[in-house]
Amino acid sequence: MKDKDLYNIPSEACTKINEWLLKFPDGEKKPAIIYALHLIQKENKYIKSKHVDALANLLNLKKIDVYEVASFYSMFELEKVGKHTISVCTNVSCMLKGSDEILAYLERKLKIKVGTSSDEYFLKDERECLAACCGAPMMQVDHRYYENLTKEKVDKIIRDIENEK
Ligand code: FES
C-alpha cells in the first residue's frame, strides 16, 4: 500500500483496515467497505468525502461504490455531528410505551431538535425498530442500548455521560 493511498484515512483506522484487507483476495475488496467505514467513523466521528475517495483508492474501487454504502446505511454519518449520538426508537412497540414523550423530553433537555446536533449531542432522526421491543421504550446512545426508559432514566443516562468527561 502506497502512502498516497492512505493519506486521508485516520491512522489507527488505516492500520486496522490494512490488516482486515489481508483476509480478502485481490480484486475482491468490496465486502471490506462497511468494516472500513466503521473504523474511519469511529476515529473521525463522521465520514468526509476525502475518506470516501481515499477508501476507494485503497480498495481499488470506484468512488461511487464506497459512497453508495456510506450513504445507504443510517449508521454512517456524512456530516459533522456531536460527540454522542442518540437514537430514540419510535416504532410501534416503543410508541405505545411512550417513546414520543421520551423524544420530546430529550429535545427539551438537550436543547436540540430531532435530526440536529450540538457539539456534544446528535439527536438522530427517529429510528425504526431497533429490535429491542421487549424493552420499549428504548434508545441507543453511541450504539449502546438503554431500555424501559423513563424521564428519570434519561436524566441518569445523560448525567453519567456528563460525568465521564
Ligand atoms: S419498536 Fe422500538 S425496539 Fe422495536
Task: Give an account of the 3D structure.
By secondary structure, the chain is of the alpha+beta class. It folds into two domains: 3-72, no CATH class; 84-164, Glutaredoxin, CATH 3.40.30. The chain has helices spanning 3-6, 11-21, 33-44, 49-59, 63-72, 92-96, 99-110, 151-164, and strands at residues 84-88, 116-117, 121-123, 139-141, 144-146. It has a five-stranded mixed sheet with strand order 2-3-1-4-5, covered by helices on one side. A hairpin with a 3-residue loop joins strand 2 and strand 3 (121-123). Helix 2 runs antiparallel to helix 3 and helix 3 packs antiparallel against helix 4. The longest helix is centred in the last third of the chain and has 14 residues, at 151-164. It is elongated. The termini are far apart. Bound molecules: FE2/S2 (inorganic) cluster (FES). FE2/S2 (inorganic) cluster (FES) binds next to helix 6.
Q: Helicity level, as a percent range?
A: 40-55%
Q: In this structure, how is the largest beta sheet organized?
A: 5 strands, mixed
What is the total domain count?
2
Neighbour order of strands in the largest sheet: 2-3-1-4-5
Order of helices and strands: HHHHHEHHEEEEH
Ligands: FE2/S2 (inorganic) cluster
Low-confidence stretches: 1-5
The Cα radius of gyration reads 18 Å
CATH architecture assignment of the largest domain: 3-Layer(aba) Sandwich
Instruction: Give the tally of β-strands.
Output: 5
What's the pLDDT, averaged over the residues? 90
CATH fold call of the largest domain: Glutaredoxin
Counted by DSSP, the helix tally is: 8
